[in-house]
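Lecture 7 notes: from sequence to structure.
We start with the chain below.
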Amino acid sequence: MKNELSKKETRHLWIFFAATILWTWIVGMVPVMLGINNTTLGDYLFVFTAGIAPSCVGIIMVFKTYTKAARRDYFERFIPTWQGAWFILLYLTLFILFMTAALSFIIGEYPDFQTLKGFVQNPLSVLSFIFFMYLYGPSNEEFGWRGYALDKLLVKYGFLKGSLVLGFIWGIWHVPWLFYSTQWQSQAFAVSPLWFVAFILQCMVSSLVISIGHILSGRNYFTAATLHGIGNASLGLVYTVVSLSGSNLAQLVIILLGSLIVIVILGVFGKRFNARVNQEIQKIILNKEKFGMTEVYRDQ
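Predicted structure tokens for the same chain:
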């Protein structure tokens, strides 16, 4: 039994990446060409027509290339699980602590906790916060990035290289964000193009962190989506507004925190974690014998 994808599976994987990037880059430039990219309408058009590409292309590939058993397995992995939930809680806690400390002590931006106060005054607002946390980012991307692509990359390249490849593609996929002035990527790029390079690095580090959660949860895609959502929205739990300098600093904090987590997991718990990774990869491959699945579940 070989730990590799067939040529057809590899071709489908790169078709997914190419189609996702082309969809977002082409559709994302329509508001720019219409001159509405810096308006509320342009932002909504961009997010809900160009930003949905990873999930849409991923689901299309699943229905075009998977058997019924493989499709069922794919969607069942988006059902929430408690397995690996401790890693989500740990990352959320460290994320908020690191962010708050950096913004407070380095640039003097202190948390106002308005969102948390709002939760106390109106507990139902928690549901609204969670809804939008999953709506923007996780829902329009994770059916593709982690749902369709990650398991294939794990089989093809292993944990480290596979996660970094996905993170790099995830980063450059955001190029159209540079043309929308309301987006951090555009504002930071105006200060220095190096900030977009830092953003790509942040995507690569975050990809490693999300992949760790993915493995610890038994390859549960909802866990990956939750970690993605934490990176996008959890700073809003303690800050109502963050300056551009604060947002730039936040990118560096994400890189630092993610790197520390990866170093600890791979350095201190490396032997046990690598055994877990290999176990999950073998499950991916063995599923073809259990369910007769095609694509990533088949080695030929």
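Points to note: The mean pLDDT is 92. DSSP finds 15 helices and no strands in the chain.
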